[in-house]
Amino acid sequence: MRVFNFAAGPATLPEEVLEQVRAELTDWQGSGMSVMEVSHRSKAFMAAAQEAEASLRELLGVAANYKVLFLQGGATGQFSAIPMNLARADSTVDYLNTGTWSKKALAEAQRFTSRVNVAADEAASKYTTVPDPQALRLSSGAAYVHYTPNETIGGVEFPYVPDTGAVPLVADMSSTILSRPIDVARFGLIYAGAQKNIGPAGLVVVIVREDLIGKARPGTPAVWDYKSMADEGSMLNTPATFGWYFAGLVFRWLQRRGGLTAAAARNRAKAQLLYGAIDASTFYSNPVAAGCRSWMNVPFTLADPQLDRSFLDGARAAGLVNLEGHRSVGGMRASLYNAMPLTGVEALVAFMKEFERRHG
Fold it and tell me: What is the pLDDT at residue 169?
């Protein structure tokens, strides 16, 4: 029996897509082989890869002056690739520090660039807030501005896109990509690990404006050089073929379900249902400022932490799994990515109410 999987990543995947993958697993497109066995340079796989890119471009409205890359190394690999491609060793780069992942990206940039300006730092609030847009301390002439629109661990989400003027805006959208429409033209570069809203772990998607590539600093490995990868159609080396194929199926699944406008409506409804249950209770609480709560990752705590284990055991028995908060913050966390149905959130809310009735 399928459970409702609230993991932050690797996360739940669309059951419809999983069923298609299962049906095609040993005989893909009549080849007598799995998609994992065919050459990445075969006509069939090249066509599937091109179709996946076309579907992603359509979903996000990606203009022709952006390259779409399907790479490896996860979003963490991009923490290094971004400064190597977009900045010199003596460049100034701006970073907004709003939680665990932006902090990691910032620390990695400091290994490659001597002038990392922390344009906002929300550590004082224990990363439960985002900076006021008017309070950003942006540098004049920065090579780029980096931020994390959604912090997976802390459950903080920007309700706005920072205005960086002519300076390229770089965004780690691992947790929010494809959850709602975005204006790609406002960004110089978007990157996202696949294992939340795109597909299985092992793939990272990079969407980068053409004028920003071809400037990698000397010594940048070819697999991290955006131009080298773009010139080879993301196939300078053997790509993550299964992840790429799976991503294409997810993109088409989203298209069949009304695209990103429809996805946004579903995701908003799920988040509102769960936050509503938390806010209506004195037994549960959410630490994040109301104006910057994540749609995708909802942390919450119980009034009595001694009940945490009982809550998790009971939830698991009810088919609600992976609700443990990240080890760095504790408590609970429910991730509500695209593949989580509303029925899963309804089941979680019903369990929470019953647990509170028995233990509150």
Answer: 98
Contacts of 189 (CB under 8 A, 6+ apart): 82, 86, 144, 168, 169, 170, 171, 206, 207, 208, 209, 212
User: What per-residue confidence (pLDDT) applies to 23?
Assistant: 98
Same domain, 232 and 321: no
Whether 196 is catalytic: yes
Q: List the one residue out of 1, 6, 2 whose CA is nearest residue 340.
A: 6
92-107 pLDDT, tens per residue? 999 999 999 999 999 9
**Strands 156-157 vs 150-151: parallel, antiparallel or unpaired:** antiparallel
Domain ranges, residue 216: 16-256
Instruction: Check pLDDT > 90 for residue 157.
Output: yes
Residues 189 and 217 placed together within one structural domain of the fold: yes
CA torsion, ordered 190, 194, 196, 202, to nearest 10 deg:
-140
Question: Which DSSP helix (H) or strand (E) runs through 229?
Answer: helix 226-231
Among the options 28, 67, 172, 270, which is catalytic? 172
CATH number of domain containing 341: 3.90.1150.10
Q: Active site includes 163?
A: no
Q: How far apart are CA 325 and CA 331, in angstroms?
A: 5
Do the Cβ atoms of 200 and 171 come closer than 8 Å? no
Q: Which of 196, 225, 270, 295 is catalytic?
A: 196
**Residue 63 main-chain phi, psi, to 5 deg:** -75, 165
CA distance 316 to 219: 49
Tokens of 19: 């069923």
Claim to verify: residue 207 and residue 287 sit in the same structural domain: no
Say whether 353 is catalytic: no
